[in-house]
Amino acid sequence: MIKVRLRSIRKARGLSQEELARRVNTTKGTISNYENGYSTPSNEMLLKLADELHTTTDYLLGRIDDPNVKINENTSETEYADLKEVLNKKRAHWGGRELTEEERKLIQRIIQAAIEREESATHTE
């Protein structure tokens, strides 16, 4: 299951084997071996892969089907992030690609305009 899920989410996040390997401090060959079922990642590597791919170890292991679910370790409840906080951070990603500061600010303006438009429409009804 890991080999299928790892390849699928890596591609969905727009990462090459080489780029993923660099991010988790291993080699392209190691990632290839995982994806072809020749070897399996250690528990430590599985955690690194899940973190870097913005998913959970449960998804990679086939225990859940939604790769986008993040679980709060403290409460076992689905965690929701404040998008404004995320976009204000120095690093935010979209599909595995890091957004520039300019892109993050543009997204904030678009969201703010949509909220203001909705609030305005709600108040005029």
From TrEMBL:
Keywords, in A-Z order: DNA-binding
Matches recorded under SMART domains: HTH_XRE
InterPro entries with a match to the protein in the record: Cro/C1-type_HTH (IPR001387), Lambda_DNA-bd_dom_sf (IPR010982)
Annotated HTH cro/C1-type domain residues: 6-60
Highest rank taxon of the organism: Bacteria
Name used for this protein in its record: Helix-turn-helix transcriptional regulator
